[in-house]
Amino acid sequence: MSFGVDLGSSERGQPVELDLGELLSTRLLVQGNSGSGKSHLLRRLLEGSAGTVQQVVIDPEGDFVTLSDAFGHTVIDAASYSLGEVATIGARIREHRASAVLSLDGLEIDDQMRCAAVFLNALFEAPREHWFPALVVVDEAQLFAPAAAGEVADDARKTSLSAMTNLMCRGRKRGLAGVIATQRLAKLAKNVAAEASNFLMGRTFLDIDMLRAADLLGMERRQAEAIRDLERGQFLGLGPAIARRPVLVRVGAVRTGTNNAAPVLLPLPGADAGAELLLNLEPAPREIVAPPPPPPRPAELIRAIEAPPPVPNLPSLDEEERTSRIGAILSGLAATFSGQPAPALYQEFTVGCRMAGIAPIPPLADFRRLFALALAGIDGEEGWAETLALAAALPEEMLAPFLRIARAARDGAPCPDDAELARIYGTASMGRVKRMLGHMEERGVIVIRTDLAGGRSIALPHLGWTSAATEAGRAA
Questions:
Q1: What's the rounded Cα separation, in Å, for the pair 205 and 213?
Q2: pLDDT one-digit tens code per residue, 186-237
Q3: SS3 237
Q4: Is 290 contained in some domain?
Q5: Pick from 19, 170, 265, 471: most CB atoms within 10 A?
Q6: Residue 442 backbone dihedrals phi, psi, to 5 degrees
């Protein structure tokens, strides 16, 4: 199925269309200095394809939230959610094919990068049955895929760059078509920009950006000066979804606008009004004010600084109540777990502990073990010390799948299938599950048996436990 999005008109007044079906396979890069009309072009593309394909917009400035009024996009105010909640929302959007705008304008740049990375990873790691076609539009892409380290935290930069690379390099097979816009090609990571096959180049003035844009458009370097002469809203387009030769595109009008006001000239106030405001210095009636109290002595200030008023302690909890409340928080996290990294989950865990009046809060190392027990469904049970000692031979991330297998083996229940182990392991790859099981077997902690009907059972020889076989065909 082919669908053309009307971008505007060519130099000769002929309509220029973008082939949406081709775009889903080839991706798009938009470049232009501030004020060249990039956001207007993206809005034209989004309005023209709304209702035809799912749209997801990463919006660092809050420019595209107005799409919700005209086209029903869900606006996600990232400042109102934790990273774990953003990942859950991303997975639901992928599942239900809802068009959405992730508004990041209430966050600092480091937090914008972390939030965008978590959201993009949730889209990317969705189960195969949710790989529906979707346009993923990233405005100001140089913020999320910088060409060099800047003043942002190194972990935020690496996480964001990895998510953008996955979107542009590997997203096509998952139905994700990246559309990225940047002010400067020189600031955008090359391995992200290089994956685009369609280009719309707007006005730019720096020589390094003009030459790079000319190279992408297949123009000779002496023709690069033409990019400097483009007007606002004019772009040179090239690519299988646009044209086989560079074509000048004058972007058409849009239905929606931005909430951010454009700078306009306003008349200054009249000279008389200014004089009246600035030169009227009639003294105000004097009020009798009581003299201020004498300043405190230095010794009193020092004592006040050294001994601030104490913060009242939280109500003390007995050990049983504390354990019960921690277990409830862990169970809630396990019920909504969709592969979020441990630090993001721990942040939600600490918030839940503070809200429940739990002090002190278990450290991250204890949280990993407790959360693995909750995922395996054995939180709060006795008699697992020997199993945990056996699990010490495995990497930390394999603890939860191993305990889930051990639970089934101890109860004689059917062995967990690959889909369930993948969910507990925090991956969508069945290949990673098979490698995980192979590693466990190489370490000697499990023995895998497959019967003639294709059912799989797993034994723990150190403990003398063996699970029942899975249903035929469900192991893989």
A1: 11
A2: 788 888 888 888 888 888 867 666 677 777 666 666 666 677 778 888 888 8
A3: strand
A4: no
A5: 19
A6: -65, -35
d(CA 393, CA 444): 9
Taking the whole predicted model, whether its pTM rises above 0.85 is answered as no
| Token digits of residue 407 | 């639970």
Q: What are the distances in angstroms from CA 231 to CA 37, 235, 251, 391?
A: 9, 8, 11, 65
- pLDDT tens-digit map of 139-192: 989 899 988 877 788 888 899 999 999 999 888 889 999 999 988 887 888 888
Identify whether the C-beta of residue 136 lies closer than 8 Å to the C-beta of residue 177: yes
Same-domain pairing of 333 and 419: no
> Would residue 285 count as lying in a domain?
no
Cα distances (angstroms) measured from residue 234 to each of 35, 40, 111, 417: 11, 11, 33, 55
Classify residue 336 as exposed, middle or buried by CB count within 10 Å of its CB (0-12, 13-18, 19+).
middle
Closest of 406, 415, 405, 336 to residue 371, by C-alpha: 336
215 falls within a domain:
yes
Q: Please list the residues that pair with 237 across neighbouring strands.
A: 200, 247
Strand-pair category, 100-103 with 54-59: parallel
Domain boundary among the residues 216, 251, 286 is at 251
Residues 33/134/100/164 CA torsion (nearest 10 deg): -50
Pick the more confident residue, 250 or 312: 250
d(CA 127, CA 335): 17
Sort strands 456-460 and 447-450 into parallel, antiparallel or unpaired: antiparallel
Which helix (H) or strand (E) element contains residue 162? helix 154-170
Answer whether 239's CB lies under 8 Å from 29's CB.
no
Contact (Cβ atoms closer than 8 angstroms) between residue 394 and residue 402 = yes
Nearest to 64 by CA among 233, 254, 257, 202: 257
Instruction: Tell me: do 327 and 397 sit in the same domain.
Output: no
Structural domains in the chain (count): 3
In 141-278, DSSP assigns E strands to 176-182, 198-201, 234-239, 243-251
Distance CA 157, CA 148 (A): 9
CB 370 within 8 A of CB 330: yes
Find out whether 367 and 348 touch, Cβ atoms under 8 Å. no
Q: pLDDT tens for residues 341-378?
A: 777 788 888 888 888 888 888 888 888 888 888 888 77
Question: Do you find a cis peptide bond into 360, omega within 30 degrees of 0?
Answer: yes
